[in-house]
Amino acid sequence: MKRDYSQITPPISELAGVCDASYPINPELYDKYKVNRGLRDLQGNGVLTGLTKISEIKSKKLVDGVEVPCAGELYYRGYNIEDLVKGFISEGRYGFEEITYLLLIGKLPDKEELASFEDLLKSYRSLPTSFVRDVIMKAPSTNLMNSLARSVLTLYSYDNNAEDISIPNVLRQCIQLIATFPLMSIYGYQAYNYYIKKQQSFILHDPDLNLSTAENILHMLRPNNEYTELEARVLDLALVLHAEHGGGNNSSFTIHVVSSSGTDTYSAVAAALASLKGSKHGGANIKVCQMFDDIKAHVSDLEDREEIERYLIKILNKEAFDHSGLIYGMGHAIYSVSDPRAQLLKSFLSKLSVEKGKEREYAFYNAVEETAQKVISKNKTMYKGVSANVDFYSGFVYKMLGIPTELFTPLFAIARIAGWSAHRLEELTNASKIIRPAYKAVNERKSYVMLEKR
Fold it and tell me: Measuring CA to CA, which residue among 428, 430, 438 is closest to residue 262?
């Protein structure tokens, strides 16, 4: 039953008005006290807050003793992501399970180790009895990330060793979550689709234990269970590319911070989900799709580069779309010359666009990417180059795969739970102090006045 807040709205509004005056901080104070907002300096470099062996991002190289931007590189456990992808693609294998093993265990598995790990994931690919009915279906959410977080927190109650933070137990919990994230996400979508969107169809498919994670997502999501091999391969690649991205991204840093307090795995993962839900993090590809819909609605000829450029300038000048001045999907906090994830995903887009009859839209994406680079470079003061990031193309991929927009961010979580799990294990293995950053108080001192005299 929903509560009626109408009677308390005016008092809250009045209190909010008082709040407005008490929270703002003079931006000049950040410079005065040398505070790096967002833990990044003016050049965009991250403030060093920890060490990790899980992944590395490289976007600069030394030339004559000076750091200069270079093509982006991403390493999982010391392996270049491009080499990893080429490896499983050349052998005709799905890669997400192998990458998950690498991130969690710290080494590439041999054939027997990989097969054993895949069997382990399959053994955990189910939810407790009546969990779908009692937890997911009876309380559908308008936001599937909230639904997923609630499901994760509820799993705590089904775990007899939920508070045990020993490495073997946490590894077991993480593998179970990796195996069940696709189920909780897709069943959460089905509940939302039926109970909130009032769609007539309501079909729940059990996972097929003979299928990979990517195949199972398509198998469970589609009413007829059917998908092409190319669709599954592209989705598998997307999962691999989203599985990990350094300890400095917001959600991975969150799981380090929360894990350092000694809390349980389910609480730590729920905190990471809360971080990923934010539009500045996991929801970026949705903004890209919305932006492209807006561009198509206002550009009459999708092949006219000049018309595209004129509209992108309007977006940049806060005269169009959401008036933020941002061309979504362009630029990254770390990468400047190129995002290797975007490059790898784009390498499959041409084939998928042909299979889906979307060649014209694929060409349009290319046109916007190239034009946006030129427009941003010409009209914005940049301390580094700008290029398309993985969000620029991932939403387009998911749309071609028929994945509903509501599942875009949960799909990110299905992949990133592998990286989060590795970061939690790393934090607990090296646990020493709780992560507690310093904040400088800048409020003025005040004298207390008795209540009757105020």
Answer: 428
